[in-house]
Amino acid sequence: QVQLVESGGGLVQAGGSLRLSCAASGSFFSINGMGWYRQAPGKQRELVATISSRGRTNYADSVKGRFTISRDTYKVTVYLQMNSLKPEDTAVYYCNADSSEVGGRTNYWGQGTQVTVSS
Description:
Blueprint: E1 2-7, E2 10-13, E3 18-26, E4 30-39, E5 46-51, E6 57-59, E7 67-71, E8 77-82, E9 91-101, E10 104-109, E11 113-118
Parallel strand pairs: 2-11
Antiparallel strand pairs: 1-3, 3-8, 4-5, 4-9, 5-6, 7-8, 9-10, 9-11
């Protein structure tokens, strides 16, 4: 099993920056793709950015040029650097990871971290 622990959320003014972190721990052979999703009140959860085990990235159009996803050397921690934040970025941000374990591949979600951008 894998545990995902997120940190870095908070309140920031429009135009500001935040950096989210998500660390994977537990029993697994490897962490494959990782990503960040967000869910605003009354809306469905949506993809923000993903990164493969080889470092290939994918971004939602709404965050391209403002957000950067990256992983650490050991590939068990994923970061989301968020710059030029807008009020519409306000949401609960969830970390997602795909792991390879004894029983096969399994997908996990973090508990979520609140990001609030004031205008």
